[in-house]
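Bench notes, afternoon.
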Amino acid sequence: MDPEGRSARRCLVPAALLLLFLLAGAALGADEPATAALGRVHDPAIVSTGDLRKFFGWSSDRFRVVAVRDGRTGEIPFQFDEREDNGDWVVSPTGDLPPFAIDDDDELVFMAKDAGDRVELGDLPPGHERAAEIRIRDLRDGGTAWAYLLGYPAAVKERAPVSAYAHFDVATNTVRTPMYTIEYEPGTSLMTGLSISPAAGGTGGNILLGMQIRVDLEFSFLPLQRWRTALSEENFGGETQGFRNGPVRAIRRSRQSLDLGRFVPELPGGIIYSHFYFSSFVTPSEFSIPGLALRALRSMRYEGVSQFPLGTDELRYWDGANPAGFRIRSDDLGTLDTETDHEWWAVSGAGGTCLHTFLVPEDWRTNGIVRSTVLRREATSASQPSDEAQFSVGYALTGMEKLPRGGSFDLDMTMFILPRAYAPGDEVLPLAMSKQPLRTEVTRVGR
């Protein structure tokens, strides 16, 4: 064979070895520890237990969840929440529930901010019987973090101490977290007080007077005969069905109804859940109108507002249609855009900052239901001085008589506590929590 051919073969050998080396290195690199890069500070990481098949039948008290950050492995707060066959969370009058056997429709919950770096399962603390790696992904920007579920042969009795992120005090109808405290009117989902802690940029004083609801309705039960009525939050009745308290979130379940009298009972009605996390509280509500009432409904306008005391503080307000904001006490409300549909507003002052998001079903808008902003600055009574005036902010929904018949609808309202005064862009992560929730994947399961 000619010298050039021999030379070519000599070059192929090291080239092939180099290629194999690079491929091997790439394969090894795929399993090397990865550094967490996840900026979702408000979001829970929610894992359906349907993805944890090797743990079916295990008691929920046989687990730890750990994360690795800066090379250190530590236990993080987590909880398993049991769900009934119809999807409802299992609750109790006190909020305390015993361990339960995991099946395919329960939830594992921890805060995404507590997740950490990726490690080999063999590098996790010893003593567990099985382990699962949970990957948390932000599909918006590719941010990723990991946590590890460790299952033990028996109930974990010496769990690392963790403080609860949220706890509902049934006796006082109050929920407390490290960032906020909320007081509720008994038997309803109407807040009567909101305090933001100094650790979250507030003073610990109450910044909320309450909530107001007004519903204007017109019915036609017989030809040429119409009945009009206006209702308020006082017409909303309800029954609290129970609570669930855990290290990560507290859950309250209640059934709400709107009393129109004996002829048209329970309009609207449905189950309302409130989920309380360390920096936010979510109310994913099921809203329904009985078919008989909807057929007789000719017009319906709903208005719901939160009332903030003005006091002597210079509160500021922003929303999706007015991102430049304004000073509530001194600026002209008449210059604001209240007709453009939007999904968030924020109020900030010395008492702290809260940001509210409200998502409605897309088909509501396509059916002609219109959402607008309600902004009012008014005295709480004619005898009170101006420094005791209040500012009301919320939404109005008109055209609700156009709701599709015979269905139920999901509404998503969330209040976020921000640790500083609102700055442009602070609404991005709260909206992402509602509109682009984190994805969790069980990517590796041990023996």
